[in-house]
């Protein structure tokens, strides 16, 4: 697709009320006017497109510039994100890379003090190599942005909820402050944790909303992708220019996989967050400090629910001891030890050892990121199995006392060792 081609109108409406379909319907309804009536969007696995003549160019010429499978995905994403334009690129980091290319040497970025480790790494790289300074602030206090706003401010980069401390910021309030004093600044929201099903930053005042499509949008950890949604065509033009110039557009097969994955977003998310709610409650009942916007104890519970339709399925909790946390993570069986989130399978990780290990230890300490923090990404399994597995891990790690279960777990471990020894004999 060329930068001039407007997205297809993919906004069907209810025949009775004439209003836009509800988000769960929009998510699963991928328009596909295929000439053969293919039920699934075809994969245009091609680098080039033949032209009618030397002077008459078709809609597509080269897949770096545009590909019909990617266009289908992008039109669909624009619809569900409420974006004028949406673009699909090769990873979430690639999406942020494209966005930060709108920043020039001497400009400044304002970002949170709790944010994904890879984002922190890219911002540090820009500071070292491009003379682009980032001010890291506590985004939970909207006013804390004011002293840093200036003519140099080009991007204000927000996560809400943040990864991994699940802090919430007030998108409308911050966007208002930024737009009032810095007309050239763009408010950019990393909406990976929520997905457009739960939260639509562009409708809350953001100029750009982006996602790691690797996570909820695809849902199965079988692809890497990034998605950029733009509030206006003018911003979309700038973003498209960078994508075409740098060549990071998503390939046809991954575009197809992402179309397939996104169709089940609402059912996955409903189930995942229902499970997460139970897991958060379970941990709170045992006295752990839990970070989850579905918990009434979350300091910004009200604010989060003003902006989002649900709490999502990522939560973190503290045990008070790094060794205990390591033992818990290693004792789980159903919860896979893995970075990332948004997958249908449940995952457990220690951010300071894994996803946020690239943030130097002294900066993690300055930003009060607890070293013992455990992050849970809750999947679609039967929640009773998830709770039993977590309970057994907490007991076996010594975080909870249950002598009968401890003895049983020890017996099972010994039986297991005996069985292995017998097999070797
Ligand atoms: C909040 C958040 N944003 C962006 C990214 C980057 O996405 P990707 O891994 O697809 O590059 C990640 C994780 O990797 C993330 O957790
Ligand atoms: N080795 C990777 C770690 C990726 S972390 C992925 C995800 N965003 C998460 O929060 O778990 C890296 O250093 O980038």
From TrEMBL:
Keyword Lyase: yes
Gene Ontology cellular-component annotations: peroxisome
EC number: 4.4.1.13
InterPro entries noted in UniProt: Cys/Met-Metab_PyrdxlP-dep_enz, Cys_b_lyase_euk, Cys_met_metab_PP, PyrdxlP-dep_Trfase, PyrdxlP-dep_Trfase_major, PyrdxlP-dep_Trfase_small
One Gene Ontology MF term: pyridoxal phosphate binding
Entry keywords, A to Z: Amino-acid biosynthesis, Lyase, Methionine biosynthesis, Pyridoxal phosphate
Superkingdom: Eukaryota
Pfam families according to UniProt: Cys_Met_Meta_PP
Catalytic activity: an S-substituted L-cysteine + H2O = a thiol + pyruvate + NH4(+); L,L-cystathionine + H2O = L-homocysteine + pyruvate + NH4(+)
N6-(pyridoxal phosphate)lysine modified-residue sites: 215
Cofactor(s) essential for the protein: pyridoxal 5'-phosphate
Pathway note: Amino-acid biosynthesis; L-methionine biosynthesis via de novo pathway; L-homocysteine from L-cystathionine: step 1/1
Single biological process term from Gene Ontology: 'de novo' L-methionine biosynthetic process
Family designation: Belongs to the trans-sulfuration enzymes family.
NCBIfam families (alphabetical): cysta_beta_ly_E
PANTHER family: CYSTATHIONINE BETA-LYASE, TRANS-SULFURATION ENZYME FAMILY MEMBER
Name of the featured protein: Cystathionine beta-lyase
């Amino acid at each position: 697709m060329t930068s001039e081609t407007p997205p297809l109108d993919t906004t069907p409406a209810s025949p009775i009320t004439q209003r836009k379909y509800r988000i769960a319907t929009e998510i699963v309804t991928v328009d596909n006017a295929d000439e053969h009536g293919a039920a699934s969007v075809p994969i245009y696995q091609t680098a080039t497109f033949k032209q009618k003549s030397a002077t008459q160019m078709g809609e597509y010429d080269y897949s770096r510039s545009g590909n019909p499978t990617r266009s289908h995905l992008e039109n669909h994403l624009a619809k569900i994100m409420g974006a004028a334009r949406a673009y699909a690129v090769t990873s979430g980091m690639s999406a942020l890379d494209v966005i930060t290319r709108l920043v020039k040497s001497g400009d400044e970025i304002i970002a949170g003090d709790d944010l994904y480790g890879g984002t922190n790494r890219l911002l540090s790289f820009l500071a070292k190599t491009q003379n682009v300074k980032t001010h890291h602030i506590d985004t939970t206090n909207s006013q804390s942005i004011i002293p840093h706003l200036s003519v140099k401010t080009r991007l204000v980069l927000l996560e809400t909820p943040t990864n991994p401390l699940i802090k919430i910021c007030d998108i409308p309030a911050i966007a208002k402050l930024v737009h009032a004093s810095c007309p050239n600044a763009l408010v950019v929201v990393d909406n990976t944790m929520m997905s457009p099903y739960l939260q639509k930053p562009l409708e809350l005042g953001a100029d750009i909303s982006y996602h790691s499509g690797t996570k909820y949008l695809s849902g199965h950890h079988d692809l890497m992708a990034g998605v950029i949604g733009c509030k206006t065509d003018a911003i979309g033009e700038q973003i498209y220019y960078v994508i075409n110039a740098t060549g990071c557009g998503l390939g046809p097969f991954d575009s197809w996989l992402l179309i397939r994955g996104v169709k089940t977003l609402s059912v996955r998310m409903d189930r995942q967050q229902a499970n997460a709610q139970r897991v958060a409650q379970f941990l709170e009942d045992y006295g752990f400090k839990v970070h989850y916007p579905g918990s009434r104890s979350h300091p910004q519970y009200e604010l989060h629910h003003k902006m989002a339709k649900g709490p999502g399925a990522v939560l973190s909790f503290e045990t008070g001891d790094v060794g205990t946390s390591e033992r818990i993570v290693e004792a789980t069986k159903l919860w896979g030890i893995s970075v990332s989130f948004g997958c249908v399978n449940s995952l457990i990780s220690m951010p300071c050892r894994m996803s946020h290990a690239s943030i130097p230890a002294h900066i993690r300490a300055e930003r009060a990121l607890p070293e013992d923090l455990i992050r849970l990404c809750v999947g679609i399994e039967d929640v009773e199995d998830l709770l039993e597995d977590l309970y057994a891990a907490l007991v076996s790690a010594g975080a909870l006392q249950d002598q009968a279960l401890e003895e049983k777990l020890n017996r099972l471990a010994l039986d297991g060792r005996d069985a292995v020894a017998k097999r070797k004999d």
